[in-house]
Amino acid sequence: MASEAVTAFREQYRQEHIPPRYNGWLHLAFTFGIGGTVLGWSLLRLEAVRPVEWLAVPLTFLYANFAEYWGHRGPMHHLKRGLRLVYERHTRQHHRFFTDQAMPLDGLRDLRAVLFPPILATFFLAAFALPVGLLLAWAASSNVAWLFVATSLGYFLNYEFLHMSYHLPEAHPIARWPWIGRLRRLHQVHHDPRLMARCNFNITYPICDALFGTLHKQDR
Ligand SMILES: [Zn+2]
Ligand SMILES: [Zn+2]
């Protein structure tokens, strides 16, 4: 049940931050359409991958899990110079729109408060994935670079899909998949305003939360 404060914030957010022309389906199509196309294109660039080069996949996965953890534990919950927008969007908006008592969105337009805005997603991927990809192409091999790009994008799309699933109505068929239910409960604990800066910073798989002692499984 959404409290009066959450209901009032949602109304204010919709008026101030969701443009009238915003369309949730288009946002989904951009994220998964463009992201999926670039991912597929990266895989098509692979040529005679050697066994050792496949190691790029698990290593990129772990690196992405670490980046997700520290990005969320750091600038998303603590105001840092030059990263105000990230803090504002996450702590000041996402966490006021959704609390542990009010997890589901009310309609597709509310996806604006869940998914990365296309411009921010493009910026982060260009700023972080591109330089590392180029460095790997130079220092290792083009196969390693393409595997890095494909795994990073796959991780990002998985992040967006899981986070969206946690904020769907509980009766939605996707939200009822058993493993999504378990991960959703961890994210719900993180949305408790008293706990949001203390635990469950992995949005996808709680590997770094387990490693760094911030996993909180409290069942509600
Ligand atoms: Zn959330
Ligand atoms: Zn958070």
Overview of the structural elements:
The two termini are 14 Å apart. The radius of gyration is 18 Å and the shape is globular. Helices cover 60% and strands 0% of the residues. It has helices at 4-17, 24-44, 56-73, 84-97, 118-139, 142-166, 178-190, 207-211. The protein is mostly helical and 220 residues long. The chain contains eight helices and no strands. One zinc ion (ZN) is lined by residues 72, 76-77, 90, 95, 190, 196.
How would you sum up this structure in a few lines?
With 220 residues, this protein is mostly helical. The chain has helices at residues 4-17, 24-44, 56-73, 84-97, 118-139, 142-166, 178-190, 207-211. One zinc ion binds at residues 72, 76-77, 90, 95, 190, 196.
Beta strand count: 0
Amount of helix: 55-70%
* Number of separate helices: 8
Weakly predicted, low-confidence segments: none
Order of helices and strands: HHHHHHHH
Q: Notable features of this structure?
A:
mainly alpha, single chain, binds zinc ion, 8 helices, 220 residues, 60% helix
Layout of SSEs?
Elements lengths: L3 H14 L6 H21 L11 H18 L10 H14 L20 H22 L2 H25 L11 H13 L16 H5 L9
Helix pairs in contact: 2-6, 3-6, 5-6, 6-7
The structure holds zinc ion (2 copies).
The site of one zinc ion (ZN) has 7 residues, from helix 4.
